[in-house]
Amino acid sequence: MSTGPNSLGHGGDPIKRLQNLAVVVGLHALGLMGLVYTANQIDLQVSEAKPILASIIAPSRPSPVVVPAPTPPKPVVKETPKKILTSPKPAPTPTPVAPTPEPVKKVEPSPVVEQKTDAKANQEAAASEVIQPKFDADYLNNPKPGYPSISRRLGEEGVVMLRVYVSAQGTPDQIQLLKSSGFARLDQAAQEAVGRWRFVPARQGKIATAAWVQVPVSFQLRR
Question: Contact 181/149 with Cβ under 8 angstroms?
């Protein structure tokens, strides 16, 4: 639609000119309204396109639940049964029982113990005793100890008592001085002489055994 001087006309009817002007003004108003409406729609679209900011709220930690400690069970007290005292019953009186006769025991004769005679007992005792060794038997031919010449000149005399351990073979294994004569030369001469002697060994029954025997050796000058 043209709004030039030809359309409006300067020389036309003034009513038509006002109408035309009103139409032009209305069209402009409609155009303005359309622009405003379009702008509003654009603003709405822009505002709707804005990103939505959301904040994540961390969940609050639950407070720890305090579990009460279990109460220990009460000890069960066993009730001791009460003893019921009852009066003792009277003991029944025993009925007399007739004694049964004991069987007659047969007396058997005791075995006869052989009594040992005195002679046999003496023989056994003699067999158990130890017979001491002998040194003075004639068949032994034991020489007398020699008298030291110095002791003769000085007149030394005395008896030497020796203790001799005779083996089962009749040899003197040990010689001990039991009693001195008072002179060492005489004691020494007695020990040397007895050391060369032969003995009859001790016996226990018929068995030869070793044993001790005392041997006196006398030194006496002739006057």
Answer: no
Question: Dihedral angle at the C-alpha atoms of 182, 183, 188, 189, nearest 10 degrees?
Answer: -110
pLDDT digit string, tens, across residues 145-201: 999 999 999 999 999 999 999 999 999 999 999 999 999 999 999 999 999 999 999
- Cβ atoms of 140 and 199 within 8 Å: the answer is yes
Name which of 171, 172, 154 is nearest 163 in CA terms: 172
Q: For the segment 155-164, what is each residue's pLDDT rounded down to a tens digit?
A: 999 999 999 9
Rounded-to-integer distance, Cα 219 and Cα 188, Å: 12
Amino acid at 30: L
* CB proximity list for 210: less than 8 A, separation 6 or greater: 165, 166, 167, 168, 173, 201, 202
- Give the pTM: 0.44
How confident is residue 132, by pLDDT bands cut at 50, 70 and 90? Answer: very high
Residue with tokens 């040899």: 171
- Answer for the pair 217, 175: CB distance below 8 angstroms, yes or no: no
Q: Where are the beta strands (DSSP E) in the chain?
A: 130-131, 158-166, 172-179, 202-204, 207-209, 211-219
Percent of the chain with pLDDT over 70: 53
Q: Are 1 and 20 in contact (CB under 8 A)?
A: no
Q: Position of tokens 């009730």?
A: 79
